[in-house]
Design brief:
alpha+beta, N-terminal domain of TfIIb, 2 helices, single chain, about 70 residues, 3 strands
């Protein structure tokens, strides 16, 4: 269950770039900011399972957004 504060307005498909594996995931976006990350169960590489780095991608994007004009 996702807390109302983190409940995304939309989901954006993304491929993790932390390593060479290229896991598929969804970034939850609310008010133009990344608020949640979940694995893509239909992706052939990771089948919905993410490592700690992949799970923390939304926090990385939030840091980037405060220093740039990144929009979703």
């Amino acid at each position: 269950m996702i807390a109302d504060v983190k409940k995304p307005d939309k989901w954006v498909f993304w491929t993790s770039g932390y390593c060479s594996v290229g896991c598929g995931l969804y970034i939850g976006v609310k008010d133009g900011k990344a608020v949640y990350t979940k694995g893509n169960p239909k992706h052939d590489v990771n089948m919905g399972i993410l490592c700690p780095k992949g799970l923390s991608l939304c926090k990385s994007f939030s840091t980037v957004q405060t220093h740039s004009k990144a929009t979703w």
